[in-house]
Amino acid sequence: MKTHARLSFQSVKTNSVFTRKNLVTIANMAQPYTDEISPWPVQGNEESAFAGLVDRIVEARAAGKPVIWSMGAHVIKNGMSRYVIEMVRHGILTHVSGNGATSIHDFELAFLGETSEDVAASIEDGSFGMWEETGKYMNEAVQHGVTRGWGYGESLYRYLERNPQRFPHYEDCVFVQCQLAGVPYTCHISIGTDIIHQHPIVDFEALGATSGRDFDSMCSSIAGLADGGVFLNFGSAISGPEIFLKALSLCRNKGLPMRDITAANFDIVPVWADTAPSEEQSEYYYRPRRNMIDRLQKLGGEGLLFHGLHDRTIPQLFRRVLQRKQELEAEFVPPGKPLPPHRNEHLLYPVSSRPDRLHASGIGKLDELQEKGWSGEADPAFRECLSALERSRQEGRSILVNLGGNVVGSGMNSALISLIRRGYITHLALNGAAAFQDYELAAFGHTEEDDSDSLQRGRLGMWKEPGERMHDCLKRGYAQGLGYGESLMKDMEDRGELYPYKAYSLIFACLEQGIPCTVHITLGTDAIQQHPDVDYGIQGGASGRDFRIYAHTVSGLDGGAFLNFGSTVTGPEVFLKALSISRNLGHTVSRIMTANFDIVRLGDYHAKVGYEDWDYYYRPRKNIIHRPTSLGGKGYHFEGLHRETIAALGRMLNP
Question: What per-residue confidence (pLDDT) applies to 275?
Fold first, then answer.
């Protein structure tokens, strides 16, 4: 098997964060007891639903049941830290969690009193994310914590505890105040998406191990919802809902009822709870809707969607809960101590008994797709994109293609394999779900679990052979110094008889052509991370090696192309971080053609949008279309189903 070069981060040039201009400061953070609360323009039946949610929160806490808080980074960036802290201090919240970016902004506020750099300016010169103190302190914290068996969140707190002189603003640090109040604070990271992953001392194995322990901690807290409670999600479109789902599945597998749960999502994405979108609409794939409404209802729970900016909804929630508590003269009871997870007690089922939606025999062949059309084929912008791809191939430039999990499930592997063999893909990047589905397809001939009743039965993701074999493959490959994708390719090469359907596999096609296939995971969101054999350190370390391979490809992407299919967070974030590393190390990467393919409707994606617009937060818009092409090249967004757009590329590109 051909091994692929990795970009070393040892020569990355960092700058002092104290020289950085920031967009968010302690001075402009919200003050829960003195600020005038801005009105929240509720829509439809949101007011009555919100009143019901407030009642359920008060009732849950008065009964000693959990209220779990999940958030994305914009909660901190919008200045809402003190509201979260006050909800912890008042006993409203029993567990607080966030993604990696959330912890970074929270950490920076603690020692700097400011956070949030100007990305548009710093991405051009390779200074984006290259901040010495942030990267050094946080990586040191994690690397110290992993040796003591701590999770990611606790590792950060213990670091502040050991170095108090560095952190004058700890009173406004969410994870510090959670720990002081005895409330778990957990961090759920995606490898390669956070600025501290760019620092020379980064240790991806330590990152994976500590964040994996935090996933176990979250599962224990979710188990406390067995007979009811509340799960709140603010601005986390992927990791929060997916971790919630995986934890629910593990709890159901152990026989816990998980009934009477209320889950509420707060965001400005225009998706509504009272509609039933089809699989051809982007709303169908909005994770908070699928996981917190459709799937939760099958357990007898209730999901709610609320629309509004965090600086409107969070103050309203805090004020209304305290007011209702006073009206009812309620006392909040500490929840019971979370039970530690016992993975060896989980029931696993043979994959042959699983109903799947995608089978090797039904994967569309390229010639069968030739007659199908796509409405965007005549778009002059799409023709420009095709010309750029053909030019890149002719000139021997790199063409980096990133896929989200739904792409493999769409049955387009044959068309993508054709593009790989024809040289229109020279590096394939997959998220954890896409890699897992492709692996299952190669090994068993079927994938894309039909989960219509598997969550209720405690079977969702709990499949014996895929987990055992994939973890064994990763363990052996990692011991040989291989990355995540390399380990999968090596196993297919060495033990081909175990993969009777490898002809349908994207990973195997990359092996055949000698091109990189890298895997970029989020800890706690993938089905194999529910398996008893999981080693979070290997998960993080192997994906980290792949990130270095990916960064090497990006360092040579000048004059080439980057295409993203259906990945709204991980793909765009990993690409932007790798681009910053490459430019920081002196590689000229400016003339890039970038294109995002999804069914999300952006309209005029070159128009200026602001914080109040939902598409401002759509990562592909900023991280694929605009920021990477500011020094040259051009970015595009094309709307369509994967089976339409990928087929069109295969059909219209020169053989």
Answer: 82
469 CB-near residues (< 8 Å, 6+ apart): 443, 498
- Tell me, what amino acid is at 84? V
Q: How big is the CA angle at 311 (ends 35 and 522), to the nearest 5 degrees?
A: 140
Using the structure block, give the residue that is written with the tokens 């696993």.
348
Contacts of 470 by beta carbon, 8 Å cutoff, 6+ apart? 436, 439, 488, 528
**Burial label, 481 (beta-carbon count in 10 A; 0-12, 13-18, 19+):** exposed
Helical packing angle, 239-253 and 204-223, nearest 10°: 60
Cα distance between residue 440 and residue 447, in whole Å: 6
Q: Exposure of 357 by Cβ count < 10 A (0-12 exposed, 13-18 middle, 19+ buried)?
A: middle
Cβ count near 226 (within 10 Å): 20
The residues, ordered by sequence, that sit 6+ positions from 245 with a Cβ below 8 Å of its Cβ are 291, 295, 455, 460
The stretches of 189-262 forming alpha helices (DSSP H) are 204-223, 239-253
| Short-list 546, 544, 566, CA closest to 624 | 566
Contacts of 543 (CB under 8 A, 6+ apart): 191, 192, 204, 208, 432, 483, 484, 519, 520, 521
CB of 419 closer than 8 Å to CB of 565: no
620 and 626 Cβ atoms separated by less than 8 Å = no
Looking at the chain, how many residues does it have?
655
- Cα separation, 208 vs 408, in Å, equals 25
Q: How far apart are CA 642 and CA 72, in angstroms?
A: 27
How confident is the model at residue 605, as a pLDDT?
92
**Percent helix, strand, coil in the chain (nearest 5)?**
50, 15, 35
Asked if 215 and 243 touch (Cβ cutoff 8 Å), the reply is yes
Residue at 577: amino acid letter: K
**DSSP category for residue 26:** G
H helix runs in 410-535, sequence order: 413-421, 432-444, 464-479, 484-494, 506-513
In DSSP terms, 564 is beta-bridged to 402, 596
3-state secondary structure of 531: coil
Least Cα distance to 52 among 248, 311, 303, 312 occurs for 303
Of the pLDDT bands very low, low, confident and very high (cuts 50, 70, 90), residue 105 is very high
Q: Which single residue is written with the structure tokens 């893909």?
A: 425
Separation of alpha carbons 307 and 266, rounded Å: 6
Residue 363 pLDDT exceeds 90 = no
Orientation of helix 464-479 relative to helix 484-494, angle to 10° = 100
Stretch 458-467: mean pLDDT: 96
More confident residue, 346 or 151: 151
For residues 403 and 430, the answer to whether their CB atoms sit within 8 Å is: yes
Q: Classify strands 446-449 and 356-359 as parallel, antiparallel or unpaired.
A: antiparallel
Q: What angle do CA 146, 148, 150 make, to 5 degrees?
A: 65
Evaluate whether 24 touches 79 at the Cβ level (below 8 Å): yes
The answer to whether residues 58 and 324 touch, using CB atoms and an 8 Å cutoff, is yes
* Cα separation values, 28 from 39, 82, 399, Å: 19, 11, 43
pLDDT at 380: 97
Euclidean distance between CA atoms 601 and 316, whole angstroms = 30
Tokens (6 digits) for 243 = 């971790």
d(CA 37, CA 179): 28
Distances, alpha carbon 598 to alpha carbons 272, 434, 435, 549, in Å: 20, 16, 19, 26
